[in-house]
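Re: that backbone. Tokens:
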């Protein structure tokens, strides 16, 4: 193998492979929700961002502004002409087709990352793809899979510890690197996966001592505010979903009047990862009455792992 091949970054590998149009489902091709994306930054680990851009100016755009959406032909022609590094489809929460009985069907996107890390993760990804039974393809990085399927309801709560499921407000890259197959209705399989990935939190048992309310000991003082901001500076917001969630919950545990704002500012320190809808979902899932809550102690622990000296 040529040394240049070995030293290629994941982005360079993707640029060489490029978009393959033959296998992209017709349902996507005939829906004008397309955009062109470009990578502006690469991380040392090889991950690269995918930023929606204007085909006219090359500047960043909002993928959720419908005036920025293109037909498949326009998006692909712009990409082929050298504008951007790829194309993507915007899931907007609107019906994309309907059943023979006239029931609206919504497009759902499922992301499975790092599928080849272990034998277990590979087998799990295969199982999910087989269960849903719809079109899936390899991601631009070559390390993940994306499934497109239909549902008669908006199912999925975005990011989880196991994968991602998007029913709306999400731009997803499209590569065409998958077997040719249709996007099919898979409501039952998607709903089952949603319950598995986002299980309902246990209800607090009546009569148990509520430590979250009893032990609100992290008082709102200038000293502890400075301490909290110092702690957060040692915790990267570009992290796993579980850590992301726990940090937000740990901040909310303070019960300070601006706790949500503090949590948001911390999340925004990783702008490529920050997703407003996901942030509000994590905030909304916080349960101050949980019998075993995430506390500020979790933040101290994570900061120590990040190099903070106690």
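Recovered sequence:
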């Amino acid at each position: 193998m040529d040394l240049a091949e070995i030293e290629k970054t994941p982005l360079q590998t993707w640029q060489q492979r490029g978009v393959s149009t033959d296998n992209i489902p017709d349902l996507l091709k005939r829906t004008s929700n397309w955009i062109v994306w470009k990578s502006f930054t690469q991380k040392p680990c090889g991950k690269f961002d995918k930023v929606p851009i204007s085909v006219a100016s090359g500047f960043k755009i909002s993928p959720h502004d419908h005036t920025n959406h293109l037909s498949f032909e326009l998006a692909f022609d712009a990409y082929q002409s050298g504008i951007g590094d790829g194309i993507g489809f915007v899931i907007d929460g609107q019906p994309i087709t309907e059943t023979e009985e006239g029931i609206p069907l919504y497009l759902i996107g499922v992301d499975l990352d790092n599928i080849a890390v272990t034998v277990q993760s590979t087998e799990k990804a295969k199982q999910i793809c087989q269960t849903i039974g719809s079109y899936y393809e390899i991601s631009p990085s070559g390390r993940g899979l994306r499934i497109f399927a239909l549902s008669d309801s908006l199912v999925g709560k975005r990011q989880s510890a196991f994968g991602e499921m998007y029913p709306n407000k999400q731009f997803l890259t499209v590569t065409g690197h998958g077997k040719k197959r249709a996007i099919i209705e898979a409501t039952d399989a998607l709903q089952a996966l949603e319950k598995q990935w986002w299980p309902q939190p246990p209800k607090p048992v009546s009569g148990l001592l509520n430590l979250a309310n009893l032990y609100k000991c992290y008082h709102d003082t200038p000293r502890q505010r400075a301490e909290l901001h110092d702690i957060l500076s040692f915790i990267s917001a570009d992290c796993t979903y579980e850590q992301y969630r726990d940090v937000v919950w740990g901040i909310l545990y303070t019960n300070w009047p601006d706790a949500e704002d503090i949590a948001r500012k911390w999340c925004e320190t990783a702008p490529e990862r920050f997703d407003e809808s996901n942030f509000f979902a994590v905030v909304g899932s916080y349960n101050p009455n949980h019998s075993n809550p995430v506390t500020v102690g979790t933040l101290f622990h994570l900061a120590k792992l990040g190099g903070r000296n106690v």
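The chain is about 35% helix and 15% strand. Residues 3-197 form a domain with the DNA primase, PRIM domain fold (CATH 3.90.920).
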